[in-house]
Inverse folding.
């Protein structure tokens, strides 16, 4: 997969702007506030139907305009795709694929994949468990239609059971209304756990390989379930947690409560990791994501690197570039990479611009 053309109208601080990309490397450089990250955000929005920076779509519309438009031309499994996103202050978002209006962003998921590395995503290593669940759910969803369908089914049933719990807590319904959702919740939840568990083991293998290639002396590991509960144990736990669920107003047991922890050199990364360790761990997770998505979806994601070298010393930067170039050699295709930076010299020193990869640059001004 690759993006060839991006057109922006009233998006962030861009009035009307057009970018063309090559299969290799594109570097977008300029001072802060020049709109570099917005370019990556626009590509991500075309890929998934949502921004990686905000849930409030109207924030992306440049004042004083009433709407924005993003258009992109992709090559998806050797078939051209034209994707368009329009956001109006008055009516929200509209998505189009090859001229046809889409009913939901689910129709875009997994079609033109991207892997984004941005400071906004540091919450994956620093944030609460929900941030890591979101990271893995997104990665597994773009890799498997079965996963995203099962996840959506589970989310719907969970929402319905939680609504019933809330009504029981407020004495609007009897406890039987909660029971009526239990079997459906556990059946779908167990299916979700099974798929997630298998994917997580595959990802652990990819991450171990990436870490070993970067530095054999580093121990960076994921802590997850050793085994998923059997369906019978799951149903028993749901029954036993009923009083607690009603007291708290939500379902307290299931895959939506998974705690996926990260350990750096046997220390809990979230609580004890340094700034450099957090930054490097995110880079390694993202490169492992690139490998995982490529293996399991059959597509070659575009890599979006937002200010990659900002908090990394030169030695680490060069090692990351070398690792990335190794991944390209293995795949047999160049990894389409779009990098933003405030200092083009940092990119040149890292070695990213050298070698056989074709490259082009854009300079943005405020």
């Amino acid at each position: 997969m690759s993006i060839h053309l991006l057109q922006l109208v009233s998006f962030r601080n861009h009035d009307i702007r057009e970018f063309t990309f090559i299969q290799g490397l594109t570097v977008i450089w300029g001072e802060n506030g020049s709109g570099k990250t917005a370019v990556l955000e626009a590509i991500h929005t075309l890929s998934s139907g949502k921004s990686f920076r905000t849930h409030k779509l109207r924030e992306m519309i440049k004042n004083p305009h009433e709407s924005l438009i993003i258009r992109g031309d992709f090559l998806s499994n050797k078939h051209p795709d034209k994707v368009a996103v329009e956001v109006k202050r008055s009516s929200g978002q509209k998505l189009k694929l090859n001229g046809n209006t889409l009913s939901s962003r689910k129709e875009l998921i997994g079609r033109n994949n991207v892997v984004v590395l941005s400071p906004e995503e540091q919450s994956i290593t620093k944030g609460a468990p929900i941030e890591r669940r979101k990271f893995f759910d997104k990665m597994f969803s773009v890799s498997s239609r079965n996963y995203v369908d099962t996840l959506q089914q589970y989310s719907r049933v969970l929402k319905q059971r939680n609504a019933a719990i809330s009504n029981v807590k407020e004495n609007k319904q009897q406890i039987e209304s909660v029971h009526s959702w239990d079997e459906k919740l556990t059946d779908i939840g167990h299916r979700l756990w099974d798929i997630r568990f298998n994917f997580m083991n595959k990802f652990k293998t990819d991450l171990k390989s990436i870490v070993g290639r970067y530095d054999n002396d580093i121990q960076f590991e994921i802590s997850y379930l050793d085994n998923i509960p059997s369906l019978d144990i799951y149903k028993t736990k749901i029954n036993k947690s009923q009083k607690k669920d009603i007291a708290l107003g939500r379902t307290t047991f299931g895959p939506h409560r998974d705690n996926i922890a990260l350990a750096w050199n046997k220390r809990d990364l979230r609580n004890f990791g340094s700034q450099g360790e957090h930054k490097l761990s995110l880079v390694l997770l993202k490169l492992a994501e690139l490998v995982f998505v490529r293996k399991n979806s059959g597509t070659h994601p575009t890599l979006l690197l937002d200010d990659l070298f900002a908090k990394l010393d030169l030695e680490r930067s060069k090692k990351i570039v070398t690792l990335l170039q190794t991944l390209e050699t293995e795949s047999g295709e160049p990894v389409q990479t779009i990098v933003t930076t405030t200092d083009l010299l940092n990119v040149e020193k890292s070695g990213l611009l050298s070698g056989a990869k074709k490259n082009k640059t854009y300079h943005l001004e405020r």
The mean pLDDT is 93. The chain has eleven helices and 14 strands.
